[in-house]
Amino acid sequence: DGDTARLTALVEAQHLLTDGSGTHALLKNPYTVDLVRGDGGRWLVHRMRIDNSWLTGDPTAVFGA
User: Fold this and answer.
1) pTM
2) Where are the beta strands (DSSP E) in the chain?
3) What is the largest CA-CA distance in the chain?
C-alpha cells in the first residue's frame, strides 16, 4: 500500500569504555527494521530486530558487568 517498508543493514560497531581501562568490544549485527509511514509522510520504526553475528573483545564493554 506504499505505507510500509523494510530496511536491512549490516552494522559493525566498536564499543569503548570511557574509564581509561581500554575495555572494548567489536560486534557485527544484521538489523531488520519494519517501517510505517506516519502523519506528515515521515517514516517511523514499527519493529526492529538485531541479531548478533559475532563479537570479539570484552562483552562488558556493551552489556556491563
Assistant:
1) 0.76
2) 4-16, 24-37, 43-50, 54-57
3) 51
**CA gap 6, 21 in Å, rounded:** 39
Per residue in 2-60, pLDDT (tens digit) is 999 999 999 999 999 988 899 999 999 999 999 999 999 999 999 999 999 999 999 99
In angstroms, the CA 38 to CA 45 distance is 10
Contact 25, 62 (CB under 8 A): yes
C-alpha 65/C-alpha 60 separation (Å) is 5
Rg of the Cα atoms in the chain: 16
SS3 (DSSP) at 18 = coil
Helix (H, G, I), strand (E, B) or coil at 65: coil
